Amino acid sequence: SATVSVQLRYRETAAQTAYVDQRVKAVLGSLIRPGMNDHEKIKAIHDWVILHLKYDMTLQKYTAYDGLSSGSTVCQGYSLLTYKMLKEAGIPNKIVEGTAAPRDTGVSQLHAWNLVLLDGKWYHLDTTWDDPAPDKAGEVGTGYYLRTDAQMRKDHAWTKTYPAAVTLYRDTLSGLIRQGGSHLAFYQKLQEQLEYQLYDPAQIVSTSAQLSAKAKPIVAAGEHSLLFRFRGDKEQLLGALQDLYRLGVSSISYTQSPLDETEDLRIYVTWK
Prior knowledge:
Elements: H1 14-31, H2 38-52, E1 54-55, H3 64-70, E2 72-73, H4 75-88, E3 93-100, E4 109-118, E5 121-125, E6 145-147, H5 149-152, E7 156-157, H6 169-179, H7 184-193, E8 204-205, H8 208-220, E9 225-230, H9 234-242, E10 253-258, E11 265-270
Parallel strand pairs: 1-2, 8-9
Antiparallel strand pairs: 3-4, 3-7, 4-5, 5-6, 9-11, 10-11
């Protein structure tokens, strides 16, 4: 025979949880406007969490209360607060427990994020990884906004069974834009924020002439940056960028990264 004693300890007190519930209701009261649909609510909540929290580098703060009371917490706190805000807004969601490995280090670590049910489809939402670290005031990432299982598995992993997330949100968004309606302006703006316009084959740049044609009206408008999708090798890219000097700009610089699910590059170029 054996005598087993189990002692439970909560990271939040009842009073702290009540504070979280009160703050969540108050925030949503000003954040959610009449007539907003679930797409708009999710984006508003995602951005609010990121703009009002920063990652706790001391790894000592774990709860939604920590995040709201001190402004910082680890992924558990991010996902708990996101869960509560989405649930209070009427959006079903789950917390996913797993691991994640930053692409720059490849070192896997324990992690938590959310799985959101939107119009009958499940999507991953990672507010922690969409928040720049170290924190950058006013900056909101979207790299882990409403992603599929396949997209998340590039650097996230989970072992428990969760509802399958198999629908590409860029396809969902394209369909909503084609339908039009009163929320069209929001969908179009969100498509641009998520950079989904790059997946339109018509957006592919592969020659100097195509890049100059894209850049010319932007330069004429007095703007100093351009995001585009490039298909070609490094020599071709550098040649196309070099030709931008003919438009009268100076000090050209650029960053590049693979465009997910394509063989092309995402290029962001700036100039003076």
